[in-house]
Amino acid sequence: MKCFLPHSPHPRGYSPEASENVAALMGRKGVGDPVEKFSVGFEAPLTIDARDGSDAIEFVSAAVDGAKSEAKQDNDDDVNDALLKQCFAPNVWPEGADEFRDVLSKYFSAAFVLGQQLMELFAEALQVPLDTFSKQCMKSSASLRILRYPSMPASPSSTSESSADDPPGRMAWHTDLGTVTLLSTDELGLQVQLEGDDKWHWVPVPPKGALIVNVGDVMSHWTNGQWVSTRHRVVCAPANQEGRVPQRTSIVMFHQPGYDAVIEPICGANDKEKLPTMRWNEFCADKMNRIDW
Fold it and tell me: What percentage of the chain reaches a pLDDT higher than 70?
């Protein structure tokens, strides 16, 4: 199965190992990431501020799975636009995997609704109107990716204690582009840097039912830098008794603004000079087009 848009800021379907180079996202040289990926996104722009309950999840799910999408019917004229065709490209599903398709669509939908709820909580914390962020994400270009890091032989160069910013073996350091990232994972590997600290810190594997939450570049920009986009990387976990680094699987929902959102920093978020207004689609395309696909 091939990735539907292999050179797009909004990939779909399966991406084999070494097909992406995340270091390039940050303007650095690197090698292809040794990780398999499966990606899905919305097939139609959402027309509601999806924040509440099962009805919202069902509506969002229809925008993920075009075969049963009522949301798409109201947007045929818009979808003719080239940008919309890219942002809301058809998903590419494995043949004969209907249960996988259904479960993943519902998981993505529930995660997106949770992201919208977080947008409201963020607004409350920043003392701005509750819909300040969520309304800018109604036509979201959010995506969900399953990442599989294969088991590999342990070696000194791939150990978790490496002091290099980009130790070989997993995924180079980077920040996420969007508002917030929701991550579920089954093994150690994720490390983060804290503001003003050049050390790398392990992030524990969350208990069942819990998620890891990363603030992304857009939310940092929205708060005029008051909230910092999390610098993180994936390294090899300690070897098992067989001398191998265990396989690691993650499910990542990248919550993002609407394809046409204009991100204007909140006045008074801090004492720094106000950052310039930016357009999400231009920022996203500029970053993602750096990747050596």
Answer: 74
Active-site residue, selected from the candidate residues 12, 145, 170, 248: 248
Q: Which of 217, 204, 197 is nearest to 275 (CA)?
A: 217
CA dist., res. 215 & res. 230, Å (int): 6
Distance (Å, whole) CA 168 – CA 265? 36
- Tell me whether residue 248 is one of the annotated catalytic residues: yes
3-class secondary structure per residue, the chain: CCCCCCCCCCCCEEECCCCCCHHHHHCCCCCCCCCEEEEEECCCCCCCCCCCHHHHHHHHHHHHCHHHCCHHHHHHHHHCCHHHHHHCCCCCCCCCCHHHHHHHHHHHHHHHHHHHHHHHHHHHHCCCCCCCCHHHHCCECCEEEEEEECCEECCHHHCCCCCCCCCCCCEEEECCCCCEEEEEECCCCEEEECCCCCCCEECCCCCCCCCEEEECHHHHHHCCCCCCCCEEEECCCCCCCCCEECCEEEEEEEECCECCCEECCCCCCCCCCCCCCEEHHHHHHHHHCCCCC
The model's pTM is: 0.85
**pLDDT tens-place string over residues 229-276:** 999 999 888 888 888 888 899 999 999 999 889 999 986 656 678 889
How far apart CA 81 and CA 59 sit, in angstroms, is 23
